[in-house]
Amino acid sequence: MLQRRSIRRYEYEQVAREDMQFIFDAIRNTPTSYNAQQYSVIDVTDPEIKQKLYELTGQKQIKTCSHFLAFCADFNKIACAAKAKGEPMPEIYNTADGLILGTVDASLAMMSAVTAACSRGLGTCCIGYLRTAAPDGISSLLRLPQHVYVVCGLAIGIPREIPDLKPKQPLSLIIHADTYRQDDLTPDLLAYDAEVIRYNGSRSGSKTDNDWATHMLGYYREAMGYTMLEALRHRGFDPQK
Fold it and tell me: Distances from the Cα of 236 to the Cαs of 41, 147, 213, 232, in angstroms?
């Protein structure tokens, strides 16, 4: 995992069936809240569906990877079980905690897949844009039932590239001892920002002068225009209730 990096270019060769089974088994054994397993995964290998997902997201690795996995928060399964047993279904999906539960479960499942894939020498690329690019179109394409929404996507394939490892924040900004740090974070943040600038200007392949903070703030400004609440309501969720 210390050598994990995002792979966006893949060989045409397909991932072996036994490797995918290993990844699926790792996903299945993911720890979840209450053991509720509030997630499902759509394994996309159909070239036509992958092409349409690419057209909706602009992410080329979706159409070139061997398997593209869409990780979804899923309250449809428990609702079906409740109906079968004649039990009322609490509207947990209409609470902030419910959305967090489903999102965390799906995210943990994706990390299980990343870890399993890396252990087999495969390349992966997490694609959060699957959630925000065209939520209604993607949900329709994947034929998601009500009370199921996409959290993230994962491309898996045989790497055609080994890009440089991106610098990550130092442990001093990530691991806090007993309580959140009370001193000024600014020196560590600016030092990391400068490290990212150096990396982007010297890495193999395309180079930029991007920093970390300004670049991320730009993403956040763009994300302010996303209509995720409306998209969630179309999926049968109303977290403002």
Answer: 19, 5, 35, 7
Burial (Cβ within 10 Å: 0-12, 13-18, ≥19) of residue 125 = buried
Distance CA 90, CA 183 (A): 43
CA gyration radius for the chain? 20
Contact 41, 68 (CB under 8 A): no
Range 81-107 average pLDDT: 95
Sequence-ordered alpha helix ranges (H) in the chain: 17-28, 47-57, 60-64, 76-84, 96-119, 129-132, 135-141, 171-174, 186-202, 213-223, 228-234
Global pTM exceeds 0.90: yes
